[in-house]
Amino acid sequence: MTTGFSQASTRVHDKLFKLGDADSYNEVVDLFDKYTEQFTRHLPAPMMAMAAVQANQCILDIGTGTGIVALEVARSLSEGGRIVGIDLSDGMLATARAKAEKEGLAEQTEFLKMDAEALQFEDNAFDNVLSLYALRHFPNPEKAVAEMHRVLKPGGSVVVAVGSRPELLSRGGVVAMSRRITSIIRRLAGRELAACEFLDQLVNQHIPEIVNSDTAHWTADRHGFTGSVRGLLESAGFTDIDSTWRGQYSIIESPEEFWELQMTFSSLARKRIGQAEDSVVDGLKNEFISTCEGVLARKGRLVYQSGAAIISAVKP
Ligand SMILES: C[S@@+](CC[C@H](N)C(=O)[O-])C[C@H]1O[C@@H](n2cnc3c(N)ncnc32)[C@H](O)[C@@H]1O
Questions:
Q1: In the CATH scheme, what architecture does the domain 4-165+215-247+306-314 have?
Q2: How far apart are the CA of 137 and the centre of ligand 1, in A?
């Protein structure tokens, strides 16, 4: 049985989680923008294609960050078109606005501070809703997905992209699996380190878990994650669910850049290291750099292998 007290304490926990998640980005906005431009640039186009975004439409981007999706949509809009990006991080929103201004896209864009689980828009307000790498950050994703459904016009599409390994039997899955086998052999020989697993492992060793603070609890099982997103969309009343996968494999040149990238993209590292004592962080970073240098001395490599499941659905 859920008591009034436990409901209230869950609400307080969720609120703190959301504020903590958004605030953790304020510290790293410039780096986030730099690495997003470098490693995420390939994702907005297939998301827009799956939603069949038209130049005169009104589009919503949820958890917009520094606007990688919103600005790509803005570039494709004609005079009647409009894109609204929402996020809870002031730093992310400020950078998204500044980028829109710089590119001359301010007229057709709007960036608003808003909780994805409680959108302040009328029903049926948008032609399409997009959201990249944000769903894992919401403690109640079913609320966020219900809100996406509510603000979409009937016939409109939602396209949600989440970090994920590919389906095993897909073409992407076969390529990723053969890379993974090579990777395991290289790692056993001490000749490869992979982001963000490497830093996450060190953080787990050096800084004990802060309960429920890293990513929303429901995303713990990464393998079942794409399946759970489909389930969420179906439960909210979406139909015609379709999905695709996009992966990227990059070699990172230096240990410092490898550190910076993982400190920016790993929620676990960003949040726990942000709360740890300086001496603990120094010890962890020394071990990180010396392990990387050892791998490079053996002619090994530092890699960042990312993958996104892009899932689309229609509001009937
Ligand atoms: C991994 S970033 C993705 C940003 C952007 N979509 C991209 O791919 O570059 C997740 C974003 O979700 C935002 N966020 C977290 N919780 C939120 C919430 N409850 N409502 C709206 N945005 C939220 C964070 O502030 C952050 O900007």
A1: 3-Layer(aba) Sandwich (3.40)
A2: 7
Q: How far apart are CA 141 and CA 157, in angstroms?
A: 18
**Domain chopping of the chain, boundaries:** 4-165+215-247+306-314, 171-213+250-305
Please give the number of the atom of ligand 1 that sits closest to the Cα of 25: 25
Smallest CA-to-CA distance from 244 within 76, 47, 44, 111 is with 47
Structure tokens at 102: 């710089």
- What is the per-residue pLDDT across 56-79, written as a single tens digit (0 to 9) for each? 999 999 999 999 999 999 999 998
Residues 84-135 pLDDT 10s: 999 999 999 999 999 999 999 999 999 999 999 999 999 999 999 999 999 9
- Closest residue by Cα to atom 13, ligand 1, is 63
Q: Which residues line ligand 1 (CB under 6 A)?
A: 18, 21-22, 25, 36, 40, 63-65, 68-69, 86-89, 92, 115-117, 132-134, 137-138
Using DSSP's 3-state secondary structure scheme, residue 4 falls into: helix
- Cα–Cα distance between 285 and 202 in angstroms, integer? 9
Taking the centre of ligand 1 as the mean of its atom positions, its distance from the CA of residue 92, in whole angstroms, is 8
- What is the C-alpha to C-alpha distance for residues 46 and 39, in angstroms, rounded to an integer? 15
| Dist. CA 295 → ligand 1 center (Å) | 33
Instruction: Return the number of other C-beta atoms located less than 10 Å from residue 260's C-beta.
Output: 16
